[in-house]
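Data deposition worksheet. Section B asks for the primary sequence of the deposited chain exactly as it was used as input, without tags or linkers unless they were present during the calculation. Section C holds the resulting structure in token form. Section D is free text for depositor observations; keep each observation to a single sentence. Incomplete worksheets are returned to the depositor.
Section A, Depositor: J.P.
Section B:
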Amino acid sequence: MSELHFTVGVIGLGLIGGSMALDLRRRGFAGKTLGVEKDPVAAEAAKTIGLVDEVTDFEDCVRRSDVIVIAVPVGTAVKMVTRVLDMFGDFSTSLEMTGRSLDMTKIVIDVCSTKEQICKATKYHPMRRQFVSTHPMAGTEYSGPWAAQPGLFDGRACIFANSEESSPKALKTIEKMYDVLNMRPIYMEAAQHDVHTAYVSHISHVTSFALALTVLDKEKDEKHIFDLASGGFSSTVRLAKSNADMWVPILSQNHDNVLHVMDTYIEKMQEFRKAIADYDEDRIRELIAEANRIKKILR
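Section C:
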């Protein structure tokens, strides 16, 4: 593995994995990109679109790649990262039996939206130092190889979870990788990450799902609701288009944090409901003014 032009293997060629493969190859970090995709239709699409140089199987991808990106739903990723680390150990043992030593330059990363469980599952693995747990804070409501796009990560933050458990060499390589993607690094403990993402990401999706269900239920009787929908509705409910296969394990793994945030959200909804029910315009104005303080944070 040279300083640049790594062979990068991406397991899961959807929005995140596909977009990452595109830019890492285009910007010179990857000299060659390999992809693994279990859905044959998606695999064929990834080849046709040119997301990666070659689509191969899991074992071949791990064997040939310097950096392996696990970009599958988090429930699968927990087991898959461990499986890759097991293979690293097998590579090392095989070389030692032939009188050679393995220069352990292989690195595996995940890009999942929850960190605590995957970090716990790998903490005591003998090859743990070759794993860097990351969460690039970027995405859209779309999924599959068709959703991949260049420049998706530009200007966004990337979370590094429990980075002290990774080897300095592995960490430096992945920091460089995300620098090539024009992302700024933020370092957190895995548990801290999961609390923060429950507030800034996971509750947004739950709220959007609930709003979509509410409107769909009402639309059975009032056919003109969607005819009257404007940009405000579309921007609020767009996350309801997100893929269930990705979000079910996220909400399950971050169960406690998401429930806490949902309880707080319901309390705020109840405050608005009471003020509206009481025709209390002063209280409604106060609540909106309090909410407007978000403008100082989000510009």
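Section D:
Residues 14 and 145 are 4 Å apart (CA to CA).
The chain has two domains: 6-188, 194-296.
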